[in-house]
Amino acid sequence: MARVVVDVMLKPEILDPQGQAVQRALPRLGFQGISDVRQGKRFELEVDGPVDDAALARIHELAETFLANTVIEDFVVKVEEPAVEAK
Amino acid sequence: MARVVVDVMLKPEILDPQGQAVQRALPRLGFQGISDVRQGKRFELEVDGPVDDAALARIHELAETFLANTVIEDFVVKVEEPAVEAK
User: Fold this and answer.
1) Are A35 and B1 contacting, i.e. CB atoms less than 8 angstroms apart?
2) Which of A60, A68, A87, B36 gives 20 to 30 Å between its CA and that of A4?
3) A42 touches chain B (CB under 8 A)
4) Ordered structural domains, chain B, with CATH
């Protein structure tokens, strides 16, 4: 079992109203020094068996056709090492 | 300028209807071998100046009070190395 993460973010040229709303609120909450905030989606996929090139290609296809709207969004596929359980 | 990423995911014990909806649709779309899907939020913060311990502590506080609902969500704060522009 391995975990593959797909991060989906709006393309840089696309306005991000949610991110802007967060950014505008920061000074009011006392947080300075953050010049931009972008908000996107994170998918964690638990994959049966080894994550070989074929599996990654399939997940890339899945992200492209289903998880991201590639007209306005970019996505990144990453294999995450299984977190060592804290004893 | 550095980028700090805050990943916000529902706690494992909290039902994730969006993730389940994605997972149930996968076989219909021809994707097998994915046993679980969790969906969360990803925030990319552009931070002015160096990201030292004090800045990270502030961002951790920001995530705890504003970006995540810590009753039902966990969050992870990560400093992301500036991506080298592909030449």
Assistant:
1) yes
2) A87
3) yes
4) 2-14+40-80 (3.30.1280.10)
